[in-house]
Amino acid sequence: MSTPPDGLPIYRVLTGPDDVTFCQRVSEVIGLGYELHEGPAVTFNGENVIIAQALVWPTHA
Questions:
Q1: d(CA 32, CA 49)
Q2: Average pLDDT of 30-55?
Q3: 2, 22, 50, 57: least buried by Cβ within 10 Å?
Q4: DSSP annotation string for 1-61
Q5: What's the burial of 18, exposed, middle or buried (CB within 10 Å: 0-12/13-18/19+)?
Q6: Are 27 and 20 in contact (CB under 8 A)?
Q7: Rounded to the nearest 10 degrees, how much is the dihedral formed by the CA atoms of 46, 28, 40, 54?
């Protein structure tokens, strides 16, 4: 498949608390065919660790 399914963008950033739900969201997107783009960004908002993970649709020339 040369484009993401369901009209999804080729670049996505998922953000959220560092918990099982966030990990499941990233896993689901990888399951669609996206690939991780670099490592995650991590910060602390005073209460929770917050993660941002970029994902890209693979383009094989």
A1: 26
A2: 97
A3: 2
A4: --S-GGG--SEEEEEEESSHHHHHHHHHHHHHT-EE-SPPEEEE-SSSEEEEEEEE-----
A5: middle
A6: no
A7: -110
How do the domains of the chain map onto residue ranges? 8-56
Give the number of other CB atoms < 10 A from CB of residue 40: 16
In whole angstroms, what is the distance from residue 16 CA to residue 44 CA? 11
Kindly report the pTM of this predicted structure.
0.88
Residue located via tokens 């383009």: 59
Nearest one of 42, 22, 25 to 34, comparing CA atoms? 25
